[in-house]
Write a structure and sequence with these properties.
Helix content: over 70%
InterPro entries: MetI-like (IPR000515), MetI-like_sf (IPR035906)
Strand content: under 5%
Number of helices: 15
Family: Belongs to the binding-protein-dependent transport system permease family.
Radius of gyration: 26 Å
Membrane topology: Multi-pass membrane protein
Shape: globular
Pfam families: BPD_transp_1 (PF00528)
Main location: membrane
Distance between the termini: 12 Å
Length: 364
Amino acid sequence: MGAYILRRVLLMIPTLFGIMAISFIVIQFAPGGPVEQVIAQLTGQGGEDRLSGGGSDMAAGNVDAGGGASSRYRGAQGLNPEFIAKLEQQFGFDRPPLERFFKMLWDYARFDFGESFFRDISVIDLILEKMPVSISIGLWTTLISYLISIPLGIRKAVKDGSAFDVWTSGIVIVGYAIPGFLFAILLMVLFAGGSFFDWFPLRGLYSDNFDQLSLGEKILDYFWHLALPLTALVLSAFATTTLLTKNSFLDEIRKQYVVTARAKGLSEGRVLYGHVFRNAMLIVIAGFPGAFIAAFFTGSLLIENIFSLDGLGLLGFRSVVARDYPVVFANLYIFSLIGLFVGLISDLIYTWIDPRIDFERRDV
């Protein structure tokens, strides 16, 4: 097992390199970089003020931006070339792309993510500041979806082909087919002051008077704000696990050892939960880390934007819009690294649950 883990860890290096290289190349051709963002603010073309930190000193006029000739940047005609050069130096664009790429990789290998272009804060501090919100959403979504999916999947397997199985399959298929963000919009319209009821808050993770509430009131307030986002995420997340649980149980129920257990006179509950459960739940339990990461990093992206939850999803979206490349690439690097390790952990969970699985004897 040690050799397998070492091989998987070593394979993460070229995988990360490829992810970062492709993303870096794409960014080079994307219009509207951080220099253009500053120029847009100076020339009155910016839609919103994104210069709350990093580049704000130059935008405020610490460098003379007047005069000069044309520039390769859109909207920079007439700005002082020295000003443009200092902007490029500030954002690191005065060096060749290849040099910038390998410097970024060297810094990231040491977990040095630098500072945000437009916020006066280090990237790692910014990510840590937003992470609790995303962890809350991802953790609760995964736990609730599993608490629903596993009993429902077992029941569907036991009642395979019955009316219960048919109508619950219809609900599962609808939940799988409709994206979570559409559920979120529907819930907002129905229950968050849209066209019908105003029962739940529209944005944020807690109320303005949160610090003044008692412990019990804080817990209620917390879940009151999470009710609609979690509902939207769970409705679209539980379908896959439900069907996976059902199919796993059906496969195990049809095996010979189950027939033997029933022939010995064991109760149906003893057969299901004493014999079938461990084997059937192998693939479901092993997929828990991956399900959490999916809800943590990808599932909550649109939900955080819809409900204005200040987590990593909203941070990533705003960073892409603002071309805050240090935050964008740091998020990509950290999430990719975590995703690779989660894949390894899932394999190790397989071997822990079922010792018959031996990855040492298989090629990676």
